[in-house]
Amino acid sequence: MSTALGWLAAVGLAAGLVMGFGVAPREVTQGNVQRIMYLHVPAVWVAYLAFAVGVAGSIAYLAGRRPGADRLAHAACEVGTVFLGVNIATGAIWGKPTWGTWWTWDARLTSVAVVFVMFVAYLLLRQAIEDRERAARYAAVLSIVAALNIPLVHFSVYWWRTLHQPPSLLKPGSSTMPPEIVAALLVNFAALALLGAYFVTRRARLLAAEEEALA
Amino acid sequence: MVAAESLIRVAGLARVFGAQRVLDGVDLDVAAGEAVALLGPNGAGKTTLLKIVATLLRPTRGRATVAGYDCVREAEAVRALLGVIAHGTHVYEDLTAHENLVFWARLAGRSADRPPLAGALADVDLERHADARVRTFSAGMRRRLALARLGLGQPRVLLLDEPFAGLDQRARKWLEGRLEAFKAGGGALLMATHSFGRELGIADRIAILAGGRVALDTPRAGLGPEDVQRLYVAHTEDGS
Amino acid sequence: MAWKDLLVERRSKETLNALLFFSLALLFVFQFALGPDRERLAAVLPGLLWLGFILSGVLGLGRSFLVERENDCWEGLLLTPGDKSAIYLGKLAGSLALMLVVEALVLALFVLFFNVDLGPALPGLALVIVLGTLGVAAVGTLFAAMTAQVRARELLFPVLLLPVLVPVLLGTVQVTEALLLRESLAGVAHWLKLLVAADVVYLTIGLLTFDVILEG
Predict the structure, then answer these.
(1) Which of B6, B26, B40 minimizes the C-alpha distance to B209?
(2) End-to-end alpha-carbon separation of chain C, Å?
(3) Do C146 and A156 touch (CB under 8 A)?
(4) I need a labelling partner for C136 at 20 to 30 A (CA). Which of A175, B98, B206, C186 fits?
(5) Cα–Cα distances in angstroms (integers) from residue A36 to residues A90, A199, B223, in the given order
(6) Does the distance separating the beta carbons of B17 and A215 come in below 8 Å?
(7) How far is Cα C27 from Cα C34, in angstroms, rounded to an integer?
(8) Is A118 an 8 Å CB contact of chain C?
């Protein structure tokens, strides 16, 4: 199954590139740099999708204690963290030429950064505990805390920024986006989601293999 | 041969730590009123086995049950029947003996009134030290306090990890007496130990753990310390 | 459990002293780092105050189960039959009491050193301090139990706790700022609601999952 996903993902990525560079219009003020948005935005969507899967896996694990659920949770959270990292990195790369700065404490960036650190902590916790079963239990609880904390983080950061300065005008895309842009975003989202799913299944399989080798 | 009322039953137990296979198919039974001494070299897995029966660790394979309750799935029921004396003393240094008992009693949801606790302390000959901080206690006194704590719960199974270590002659005799009384009351006892001498006196059987398995399981009656030593060396030579 | 922790603490006074001196040291550092400019200090005061609270909270909570570890009682806790949430609440109550005492003293020191006039802001301040500290302690106790047996716990614990506490930090600082500027609480009502929501979430998760953590 993961090979099928892999091929689908490859196709999807190709389609995404075509959409991003060919079909979507060139942005007026920023030029071609803006096209990085087609990686940047879908990456964060996929990341949150991955975290949702991860938390679902964690809850399933706590309920049924099936190791497969935990491997899924572990893999999904890992992949989600990677995609979030991609999001942050592409955001910085995009920001430098357009905003003149690598980083700014606007609402979106800050909350994404906090979520990123939370899930990096998740990965660190998993690494720090040697006993596989205990690591699974603790990590599951942590991921639930992190997931429930995400809305709190978003709200608090958003309120924090909007009370002190007007919302950043440099959000990717305005409220009415031309259909080509929307289409390109969606195609890239699908492509990245497929890529993410491919990574998750490969990672879960790798985790299973590691366990087998030890047992 | 399995006694009808095996209080502790271990079957096919295996436990892996990282890349190390510490237990690899252990079978053991302890009946009510029986005491089994677990012998083996360091790292043989005695403590691991005890921990699994004590519900503190999960086995990688196999099953352990206490009075019919599965140690993994029905851990709470098992814990209610257990008394454990391990390397850790489970007592707080800065509290007095009495306060320690109050804490552990309340934590277990039992009554913390003075009379039963004072009785428990008297049982272990510590009532004169009831209001002294544990920090000032000797090893023997701490062991006695641990037993007093156990006594409150009236366990049916005792798991002991080198219970006689660090005790002087008088304390040892006292502990033997208490353990005999426990056996007479129908309790089952599983004890890990390093010594071949007097401490084995209360054991009805000895089991030698080597290579992750029970290399030998034999009644102790009629075996002197040298016999035990001989058997030990014979069965652990190739294991370790 | 809370009774036991407070008793141990009263006897040894380790944690209380450590936290107090830590906060004192922080105060000095703040003063030196920011210079004598009164206006600048007033502007960052809420942030500094909560920075101090949270840092000492992280320090104190990280040691939550130190007593158990030192005395080898961790297994004893695991072996206790019955509902483990009582242990969670007990630890939480103990930590909370300790933290509130330290915070009250630090607040007094702040008033002294930075010449702040609290006056009518005091009841509101008390409320936000309790709400904030409750949230910190609720997650902190849970995470402390998780990292109690881990080798790198001194490093891992703050890394786990601090990002999760971002909403609480933001909320408390905003409310404190409003209070010190004598603004009405109505303007920061949404922050208070956020703090309450956070407290509820953390407490609930703690109560529900502590059993799982103490399984072994």
Answers:
(1) B40
(2) 19
(3) no
(4) C186
(5) 7, 22, 81
(6) no
(7) 11
(8) yes
| pLDDT digit string, tens, across residues A18-71 | 666 665 666 655 566 667 777 788 888 889 999 999 999 999 998 888 888 888
Is the Cβ pair C79, B104 closer than 8 Å? no
Angle CA C51–C52–C56, to nearest 5: 115
Inter-chain residue contact A130 with B58, CB threshold 8 Å = no
The bridge status of strand B6-17 relative to strand B157-161 is unpaired
Q: Assess A4–C contact: CB distance below 8 Å, yes or no.
A: no
Q: Which CATH class is domain B6-91+156-236?
A: alpha beta
- As a whole number of angstroms, the distance between CA C208 and CA C199 comes to 14
C81 shares contact with chain B (CB less than 8 Å): yes
pTM for the model: 0.82
CB-nearest to B86 from C7, C75, C86 is C75
Its ipTM equals 0.84
